[in-house]
Amino acid sequence: MLYSSSILTSGSSPSSAPTFYSSPQSAAMKDAEKLIRDLDSNGDRYVDFVDLDEFMEAIIECGSKEGELMDAFLIFDIDKNGFISAKELQRY
């Protein structure tokens, strides 16, 4: 399945634009259009499986790094209070 940024655009003329474009939802529509542009790695104005796969790999990689960082933090946070004190750092 392909998703096109053209689906998210208002039409060929201002008179054909849906009424929700003038509502607060227009900001959400702009965000959605930007997301399509950002995900579209080859510039064809479509988000295909490859584009989505690359995006998901980036998210998973980021989550993995966050997990590793948390693991490292927990090693130093000896009293498990959510903070690393100078005393805790000195133990290493």
From TrEMBL:
GO terms for molecular function: calcium ion binding. Residues 1-22 are annotated as: Disordered. Pfam families: EF-hand_6. Residues 27-62, 64-92 form the EF-hand domain. It comes from the Eukaryota. This is EF-hand domain-containing protein. It comes from Populus tomentosa.
